[in-house]
Amino acid sequence: MAVRSTYRIQHQEIVVSEIAKSPNEERRRLEQAIAQSKLEIEALRAKVHGQADAGKAAILAAHLELLEDPELVETAVSAIDKGKSAASAWQQTYTSQAQQLSRLQNELLAARANDLRDMGGRVLRILTGATLEAKTYPDNTILIAEDLTPSDTATMDRSKVLGFCTVGGGATSHVSILARSMDIPAIAGTEPRVLDLPDGTPVILDGSKGTLRLNPSPEEMEKVRRLQARLKQKRQIDLAAANDPAITTDGYRLEIVANIGSKADAEKSVDLGGEGVGLLRSEFIFMERDSAPSEAEQTEIYSSIAKVLGPDRSLIIRTLDVGGDKPLPYLPIPHEENPFLGERGVRIGFDRPEILRTQLRAILQASQSGKVSVMFPMIARLEEFRMAKAMLEEERQKLGIAPIPVGIMVEIPAAAVMAHQFAAEADFFSIGTNDLTQYTLAMDRGHPKLAPYVDGLNPAVLSLIGMAAKAANDHGKWCGICGGIGSDPQAVPLLMGLGIKELSVSVPTIPSIKAQVRELSFAECQKLAEKALTLNTAAEVRALCPLPEE
Ligand code: PEP
Ligand code: MG
Q: Which of 78, 507, 510, 544 has the most beta carbons within 10 angstroms of its beta carbon?
């Protein structure tokens, strides 16, 4: 939360000359500018790498990839050959491609359009010799912008800018990823009229509630300032106890592990007291590249993460979960009317078994370096789980490696309804509440209008969670949560009360979730969960579970 005044970001105007020298000369200038841009981005990437900032590093990798897009360069070169200057040809090419992408009304493509503008602007600046204007902001600024590019945020003075609010983007946009990785309050996808706010308008920005309160009274400002001071103090206390286990007042231990996408995340999770990794989203290792990582590369990555965690913390590697809202450029999936109901997750592994088998071999080999388990996403039918297990077993026998625990994501209602049958054959369950909620309520998890209703605390979803947890416990197996509600403090007591043994949470929330568990009584959580299952709406459940004291 931040209480400050607003300031609109102005994008730099670059004057482009139309006067061209010979096409050869203009082509050479374009090549040089692209090469220089690559060097700049590599330098930024090295800096970000040093800060263990996986989100930003991935965005910069996307920029490098865009710079290597032959189509982009070829289009610019053909404009040069028709007599344009390098700067004019380049500007026309990248802006028109970005415009086409943003017209498609797809959040992922809109993020790509924003990246294209940012990367294109960098090359253009080099071509025209324009210097990057260092933007200066007054103290206590909240930036309001149509959209922000990674370069805007990279050059942002964090001592002045306390939060940002953009009209473009949504929960999964690059702006949101950056905000999370910078640990800065931000809201994306706000109403365009915020752009009309005069500079200096006092506001309260609440990133967790997604609200921007205009012209608050001095009393409200003071109240928020006091709350901020308390939260800061609490964070220090939580951090100091981060390595202690999360045991309730009556002795129930909840494992608090992390959701990660990279080795850097694993390192951060250990620093913050994470007790292992409940979900490695392996698709992050496949994204931002132009071909699939080889078996040796995957083995190296998984092993290095296992080593970061050491011999006592477990690492659950989820096999490739692409399709739906997560496309892979080098693994084209034919057009589907309903991609979320189409070839997603493990279904792709059956269609292209060599991809899954290669990954399974890498996971098995990495199990030599730590406490590794494998987990299959998007399991709907028991036959699918048996097929996936059979593939794993064949590869294991060929490699002569000892068996490893095998679990499933419970994220399709069918798997929760048939949890007893699955629990007889799986070593563990991890409930993917993001998808379980979307499929239970038949509401697209990324739909901007439906977003307020896609709530994992809906009693229908809670019942399915309870069924999965009970079935696992009855079979002597364990059931965890790796979906977003695991990191929601309002959900934590309920999930524990429903019999969940492990919460896999977003890395920065580890210390606060552990601290919250230590304040709770397991017996009370069980009563609360029982009551929640009798309620009628998600709002009633939320009213039953107030947020921990702030
Ligand atoms: C989920 O569906 O809750 C989950 C953890 O997987 P993802 O968000 O990667 O689909
Ligand atoms: Mg999922």
A: 510
